Amino acid sequence: MSTINIYTDGAARGNPGPGGYGVLLLWNNHRKELSQGYRLTTNNRMELLAVITALEALKKAEHPVHIYSDSQYVVKAISEGWLNTWIKTNFKGGKKNSDLWKHYYEISRQFKITMHWVKGHATNPFNNRCDELATAAADGKDLLIDEWYEENEYEKK
């Protein structure tokens, strides 16, 4: 069974500030790019939203999924079991991005996912393309509102 390879990246100008994500889906001879910008968000939210968006774009759950991200926050939370602990403790201690993590947790359960960390801004052309998509989305027009962030996190600052 062929593997679906997913490359993701997130960006935020100012952190918080305008942000965006970029996704590259590769399966057999198919290639699909996704990106979106938000008016006010964080880099970590965009890194995680990129992974969620990629999984939501998949039409079949039976293929193994390999996700490549330059976000140690995302990769370690998933591969080292941090997320499982956060779920069990209902994000005790004010862990950030609980809305996105809960969404990821629910959608990820239908896939066999292997996470891979790649060095950002290095020699990986797929990661570099996702960075281009994410930064262009952050700098673009028609930015969406990251409603949960603006209502729950940004107001606390």
Q: How is this structure best summarized?
A:
By secondary structure, the chain is an alpha/beta fold.
How would you describe this structure to a colleague?
There is one protein chain. By secondary structure, the protein is of the alpha/beta class. The protein has one domain (4-156): Ribonuclease H-like superfamily/Ribonuclease H (Nucleotidyltransferase, domain 5). 39% of the residues lie in helices and 27% in strands. The protein has 6 helices and 5 strands. It has helices spanning 43-57, 72-79, 82-88, 98-108, 125-138, 147-153, and strands at residues 4-12, 17-27, 30-41, 65-69, 113-117. The chain has a 5-stranded mixed beta sheet. Strand 2 and strand 3 form a beta hairpin. Helix 1 runs parallel beside helix 4. The longest helix is centred in the N-terminal third of the chain and has 15 residues, at 43-57. The radius of gyration is 15 Å and the shape is globular. The mean pLDDT is 95.
Key features of this structure:
157 residues, alpha/beta, Nucleotidyltransferase, domain 5, five-stranded mixed beta sheet, 6 helices, globular
The overall average pLDDT, rounded, is 95
CATH fold-level topology: Nucleotidyltransferase, domain 5
Total count of helical runs of at least 4 residues: 6
Strand content: 25-35%
Order of helices and strands: EEEHEHHHEHH
Please give the number of β-strands: 5
Number of domains: 1
Rg is 15 Å
User: Which CATH-level-2 architecture?
Assistant: 2-Layer Sandwich
**Runs with pLDDT <50, length 5+?**
none
Label the overall shape.
Answer: globular
Helical/strand content category = alpha/beta
Biggest sheet strand line-up: 3-2-1-4-5
- How can the largest sheet be summarized? 5 strands, mixed
